[in-house]
């Protein structure tokens, strides 16, 4: 069947309008943040999406003295870690407008520690990533890690030495999630669509979680509807958790936007690298719009289905049915695809995401479809207005402000040596109890599924990730 394009104005507004309720309201105040220029010794304020480029440049210039970086969301400054008392390195950092921070552990030292964790503490229910704010590796063990398994992880962390790694216990269970904005269905499996893209051969497609693509080959935008897309590539487990799903009708036209509910959407302009300290929004058909911050990069997650590396760690909540859904910034940057985590949106928890930039490179696709655009394009909704209260309706159905519920979209660049691309595995999905969107909404939203979440049924797929739900 042919899908006609729905005008972007239908559910989007330019960032800068009146903020709606919840998460959408939080994005707005930061939407027009600018990068200011001062003298070389005065720290500059950066736009969130500019931080990773500056950090990458400094990492190249500083070499072994560079020990990661992060974004100070409150001051809107880039903080760069430097090992030792190297005045030349400090000068380079300050000339770039960043703030120099002297630390103990080098990137190489943390990388070596991560290899030790991989060799000695790869236990299902554990995860680790580098926290550049503390210059340590943060290791998390969920509620299933007990007895000898806990003792193994604990002793491994202790043997790394003082100030190298910290270990904490999570009350939940690490598992992959399924869902996002609009729901997609593959047989008895339900997931979320992440972002619309253009495949390498020029055909329309979308990205979702790899554990969704492994669970079902054909996907529909309604529970009982005919297939509209077929999995072309899927990675899970292994070096990531992502799938490229091509629309069956090559004439399908889609918007590059995330559906944040209440007839509103956020225009997606570009794929951006995540940075520790960055404020992000997640959209899911089960739990709606939520916001939080990036807490780690290149995270290694040991799901029951296998080890996944190269993920983004956040404090954003998610639940079953949120897998594959979109992680994005207030100003239209595509950051990640929901993979898995522990906890829920009542008690909180941590959630891991597949970086969009890595997925695009792996499948040979480009972000957007048709006229999906250049940064700064109009029609961007503000997810923060509705993130805090997914059930609230915006005063103006034609305007969305994602920033209303997001804390701060700023990004910081931070490397996490604990994860290697080779061992990154996608997480599987487990049945979830979340409710999906109505068939009428699916029919309406299938034209702009960039915010759609694909939910999978664990019962059908046999995986135990927990982020998939049965329709």
Shape: globular
Number of strands: 25
**Count of DSSP-assigned helices:** 10
Helix content: 10-25%
Oligomeric state of the chains? single chain
Main beta sheet: strand number and arrangement? 6 strands, antiparallel, barrel
List low-pLDDT spans: 1-22, 27-39, 370-380, 388-471
Highlighted features:
471 residues, alpha+beta, six-stranded antiparallel β-barrel, six-stranded antiparallel beta sheet, 10 helices, 25 strands, disordered N terminus
Can you walk me through this structure?
This protein is α+β, with helices and mostly antiparallel strands. 18% of the residues lie in helices and 30% in strands. It is built from ten helices and 25 strands. It has helices at 23-31, 51-62, 87-95, 107-120, 147-159, 210-215, 356-363, 384-387, 439-445, 458-461, and strands spanning 66-72, 77-83, 99-103, 126-131, 136-141, 165-169, 175-176, 183-186, 189-192, 195-198, 204-208, 218-219, 229-235, 242-247, 257-261, 264-267, 270-271, 279-284, 288-303, 306-314, 326-328, 333-344, 348-355, 366-367, 453-455. The strands form five sheets. It has a six-stranded antiparallel β-barrel. A hairpin with a 2-residue loop joins strand 19 and strand 20 (306-314). The model is unreliable at 1-22, 27-39, 370-380 and 388-471 (pLDDT under 50).
Short recap of the structure:
This protein is an alpha+beta fold. The protein is built from ten helices and 25 strands.
